[in-house]
Design a protein that fits this description.
alpha/beta, two-stranded antiparallel sheet, 11 helices, 11 strands, about 290 residues, Helicase, Ruva Protein, domain 3, binds S-adenosyl-L-homocysteine
């Protein structure tokens, strides 16, 4: 017997149940949905500047909240598609932008939104809900076609991992997963005081530019990620030992390393994107 779908409680959480009744301005906030609203209009404008939004652009916004970014996006873009999971906020936005036919508002989990339905090239601009940053980024990076660019505010620590250099503590699976699909650069750092309520963590705006031709075709990207996870799985292990997690014959691994000119004693976390791409090509995929 199949279980009935679980009701999406968070999406139903109306303003009255938010955060144990703790008020922030006129709307209460739901911590579980990562609700930290930007209170600084100048900062919001700089985020939109980061995506060079102009009159020919269609923009996807995830988690519009009270609409601080949405408002600026509508003043610059051709069209805005915004997806808000919180029913109370969705209702508020519907009212606020009732006279704005260029805004399409969805009450939905952005992870379940198919960006192909936008029907034309688009840019993503968002102050993301931090608790779902990584799945949301990959949902869009792996969609076809991906956005032309993604300017997103995320937790500073996650930004550091995305922007990390080989050999550093932050360098890892997230760095390489993004690097395989997009170029990344920092736009700016934003202090907690720019939000209401202020988050406990610092924030960073980054710009991702999906690669026109990724170094591996889509069908080989999952294999690449398996290789990266194995190589990075146990830090300080030699590459040869770490790749044991792939459960391939020893000689197959040694042959692949040799073919790539890689010393079996190096550590996975010191290798750059190119080396991992080569290694993924040289190792047989298990499926
Ligand atoms: N952009 C606004 C709000 C950012 S807070 C601002 O800068 O002020 C994050 C927003 O994402 C909240 O409005 C929250 O309700 C919404 N949200 C959280 N999880 C979501 C999901 N899975 N899909 C869509 N929206 C989500």
């Amino acid at each position: 017997m199949s279980r009935p779908p679980r009701p999406d409680r968070s999406a139903d959480a109306s303003a009255s149940r938010h955060n144990g009744g703790k008020d922030s301005g006129t709307i209460r906030t739901l911590k579980s949905l990562g609700q930290h609203f930007l209170a600084d209009k100048g900062m919001a404008a700089r985020i939109v500047d980061g995506a060079d939004v102009g009159p020919d652009d269609t923009v996807l916004e995830i988690g519009p909240g009270r609409g601080i970014l949405t408002d600026i996006l509508l003043s610059r873009a051709k069209r805005v598609v915004a997806i808000e999971l919180d029913r109370g906020l969705h209702g508020l936005l519907e009212e606020r932008f009732a006279d704005e036919p260029r805004l399409t508002l969805h009450h939905r989990d952005a992870l379940k939104f198919d960006p192909a339905t936008i029907g034309e090239p688009y840019k993503l601009v968002a102050n993301l809900p931090y608790q779902v940053t990584t799945p949301l980024l990959f949902h869009l990076l792996e969609s076809t076609p991906p956005p032309d660019c993604m300017v997103v505010m995320i937790q500073e620590e996650v930004a550091h991992r995305i922007l990390a250099q080989p050999g550093t503590r932050e360098y890892g699976v997230l760095t390489l997963g993004v690097a395989l699909r997009a170029g990344a650069k920092k736009v700016m750092t934003v202090k907690p005081g720019a939000f209401s309520p202020p988050p406990k963590v610092r924030s960073t705006v980054i710009r991702l530019t999906p690669l026109a031709s990724p170094p591996l075709p889509e069908g080989e990207q999952a294999h690449f990620m398996r290789v990266v996870r194995a190589a990075m799985g146990t830090r300080r292990k030699t590459l040869k030992n770490a790749l044991g997690a792939l459960k391939l014959p020893n000689e197959t691994v040694l042959e692949a390393l040799d073919q790539c000119g890689l010393d079996p004693q190096v550590r996975g976390e010191t290798l750059g994107l190119e080396a991992f791409v080569q290694l993924a090509r040289a190792l047989p995929s298990s499926n």
